[in-house]
Amino acid sequence: MDAVRWGIIGTAAIALEKVIPSMLSAEGLKVAAIASRDADKARAAADHFGIERSYGSYEAILADPAIEAVYIPLPNHLHVEWAIRAAEAGKHVLCEKPLALNVEQLDSLIACRNRTGRLIQEAVMIRAHPQWEEVCRIVSSGEIGEVHAVKGVFTEVNLDPMSIVNDAAIGGGALYDLGVYPITAARMVFGAEPERVFAVSAFDPAFSVDRLTSTILMFSGGRHATLMVSTQLALRHHVEIFGTLKSLSLNNPFNPTPHDRCAIVLDDGSTLGGAAAETRMVAPADQYRLQAERFSAAVRSGASLPIELEWSLGTMKVLDAIRRSVESSAFEPV
Asked: Vertex 318, ends 245 and 205: CA angle to 5°?
């Protein structure tokens, strides 16, 4: 299979520190070009990674006929605009989360995909990690019984006034930056969409972004997911799944490095304090590399994407409902 030729639109930290290094070691693809609105930044990144071509504008990389697919790590408010422009230029698109800022924008991406025939996917990399494949296998096997509750926490500290996460005008805040991950976890575990949500947020007085958002997602059959995200609390990534027979917990559910062995801890509760818990280890995996390889394989084969836009639409509906609930102080339908 000929390698899919990729272009990178932007020099964001996630691209330079995580995604590009992983893509360079991936099979079935080649990072052939990188673009920035600052030509010097693009050239420096290209030189650092050994990328053949660099461009001083996003338009220029879209005009490159050799580029088949692009990865977009731009600030949140630019995702839809450049995903559409890329697809209309004939490129397939892998774009950072959140893919859009509201349901209407996501609908416009679906319309663009249908119109252009290009593949468009949200880069929710945890969907590619084997630990989540194993978690879903365990849940579906019935080993932990009927699952009635999920708890997800994703917190970190980011007080940088120059960070896009702390800019309300461009889609900053904890909910947009981190919320996709625990929402994804709950939807995968339950294999369903929540029916209604209740949420509260605390806003930073200087940045005007939510620095802490907590929410409860109500699923059919009385099932609940309680989620908390923050950009100003001590680092913590954790998911716990509660079944009628056992609980299952993950202490590194969202951002394991390619070298981390991930632990899945099952506890039947027969002894308090976890003395009877069983730990199953998942081999190290590079979720960014796997994400890029699977997207590239879909480009070549014409197969369905690992994450279709309809899945991302489901996430966006939850995010919209959470925002409405914060404003109304009431349960909101999804």
From this structure: 110
Beta strand ranges found along 49-126 (DSSP E): 53-55, 69-72, 92-96, 120-123
In this structure, the number of other CB atoms found within 10 A of the CB of residue 158 comes to 17
93 in a domain, yes or no? Answer: yes
Record the tokens describing residue 165, joined without a space: 């996460």
How far apart (Å, rounded) are the C-alpha atoms in residues 22 and 90?
24
Question: E strands of 78-171, at which residues?
Answer: 92-96, 120-123, 147-157
Do 110 and 192 lie in a common domain?
Answer: no
172: buried, middle or exposed (CB in 10 Å: 19+, 13-18, 0-12)?
buried
Considering its fold, how many domains does the chain have in total?
A: 2
- CA 24, chain centre distance (Å): 20
Tokens of 290: 């796997």
**Are 105 and 155 in the same domain?**
no
| Residues 244-292: tens digit of each pLDDT | 999 999 999 999 999 999 999 999 999 887 778 999 999 999 999 999 9
What are the distances in angstroms from CA 183 to CA 14, 36, 117, 257, 293? 21, 31, 28, 21, 24
Domain that holds residue 158: 130-288+317-333
Whether this model's pTM surpasses 0.85: yes
Q: Which amino acid is at 133?
A: E
Instruction: Please indicate, yes or no, whether residues 139 and 35 belong to a single structural domain of this protein.
Output: no
Q: What is the pLDDT of residue 94?
A: 98
Tell me the one-letter amino acid at 176: Y
